[in-house]
Amino acid sequence: MKITVIGTGYVGLVAGTCLADMGNEVICIDNNAEKVETLQKGFVPIYEPGLEELIKANVNEGRLFFSTDLKTAVEKSEVCFIAVGTPQGEDGSCDLQYVLNVARDIAKYMNGYKVIVDKSTVPVGTAEKVTELIKANTDYPFDVVSNPEFLKQGNAVDDFLSPDRVIIGSNSDRATKIMQDIYSPFFRTGNRIIVMDVKSAEMTKYAANSFLATKISFMNEVANLCEKVGADAEMVRIGISTDSRIGNKFLFPGLGYGGSCFPKDVKALIKTGAENNCEMNIISAADMANKNQRNLFIQKITNRFGRDLTGKTIGIWGLAFKPKTDDMREAPAITIINSLLNMGAKVRAYDPKAVESAKFYFGDRIIYTKSSYEALEDADCMLLLTEWNEFRRPDFERIKKLLKNPVIFDGRNQYDSERLIERGFEYYQVGYINKTPVKI
C-alpha cells in the first residue's frame, strides 16, 4: 500500500519506518528541509534502539522515502497519517494548530479518495474538526480515522512491530477495511485489532496514559508513607504486584513520570474534563503527586546538606526521563538540577545518550562529563536520576574514592542498601528510612 506519514518526530518516524518494513511504500514528510536531508543520508535525529538500522534497510530497499513535497506525497498515497506535534498550551489544553494545518494542506492536494489518520495524540472531537476542515477545502471523498499510538520510548520499534493491540477508531466500513489491511501483517490473528467509533478511540489514548500515570503516582505515595512508618516499600510493591488484578508494571517507586506523553496527556484529560463540567479528581491528584515527588527528593538532599549548597558539587548519573532514550522532556532531572543550581550547587552530570538534549535545558550552567565516574570527581555526593543498565552494578569502591563524602541519593532504588551501608555509604532511597552506616 502507498502511505504518507506527515511529521518525522518520534511517532511519525517510528510509524513510517515500521510500516515500510512491512512492505508498504511510505513517504515521510517534514517541512524542515535540513531534517529531511539528514534523514535521507541515514542519520537519525533521535535515539531509539533499532530505529536507525531499520531506516537504512528500508531506504536501501526502496520502500521508505523522506521529502518536503506534501503535494506529491498526498497524490501518490491512499492513506495519510498525521503525526505532527500537539504541544501543551499554558492551560493544559492540547494545541491542535499543526494537526489542522496539515489537514487543510492534505485537502488542497487530494486527487481522489483518501483515508486521513489521526496518529497524533489528540482530544476527543478532533476527528470532527479535521473532517469539517477537509470538507471545506475539497470535493473528493475521504474518511477520517483515529489510530492512537501506544509506543514506549526505548522500546518503540518492538512495540510497533509487535503491538499489544491496535485501536482503529472509524465510522466508515471502507476506511476500517483499509486500516485492517495495513495492520494485518503485524498479527497472525486479527483479534488484537480493536475497532471502535472515533471518539472512543480518541478517549482510549488519554485514558490509558492517565491510568498508568495514576498507577505510578499511587505507588510513589504508598512508598512515601512506607518511609514514614518504617515499612519496606519494595516488599509492599511485591505484595501488591503479585495480585493478578493489579500486576507488576508501573509500580516501582521513584522520581515520578516524565517524557512527552504522560504529563501532557494527563493535563489534557483534566482540561477536557473541565471543559465538559466533569471534575477529574483522581487524575488531578496523580498530577499533583507527581510534581511533589521531585520536591520530596530534593528535600532529602537539603535535609543532609542544608538549603545553601554554595561550594557543594553534586555528581549526577542520568539525565533522560527514562533509559534507552535521549528525551529530556519533563524529565525529573530538570526540576532537580534547576533547584540545586538555584541553591548554589555546582553540578557535574553524565548520561549515555541525553547530553545534547540536556544542553537545551541547562546550557553551560552544568558540567557534562564523558563518563559516569568522571561526574563524581570531587563531588560531595552522588545522585542517580535515570536507571540506565550501565549504572546497575558500578564499582562502589571507586565511587567512594572519588566522592568527598560517601553519600548516594538513589532516585530509582537500584542498589542493595545493606551492602552499601556495610561499605560505609550513606544511602538515601525513595520509600525507605534514610540509611546511614553503623559506626563501629
Explained architecture:
This protein has helices at 10-21, 33-40, 51-60, 70-76, 97-109, 126-135, 156-161, 173-183, 198-229, 233-241, 262-275, 281-305, 332-342, 355-362, 396-402, 417-422; strands at 2-6, 25-29, 64-67, 79-82, 114-118, 142-146, 166-169, 193-196, 313-317, 346-350, 367-368, 381-384, 407-410, 426-428. It is 43% helix and 13% strand. The chain has 440 residues and is an alpha/beta fold. It contains 16 helices and 14 strands.
- Taking all Cα atoms into account, the compactness measure Rg is 24 Å
Number of helices: 16
- How many β strands by DSSP? 14
Q: What proportion strand? A: 5-15%
Question: Percent range for helical residues?
Answer: 40-55%
Would you identify the regions where 5 or more consecutive residues have pLDDT less than 50? none
Main-sheet strand order equals 3-2-1-4-5-6
Q: Judging from the principal axes of the Cα atoms, what is the shape?
A: globular
Mean pLDDT: 94
Q: Give the termini distance in whole angstroms.
A: 72 Å
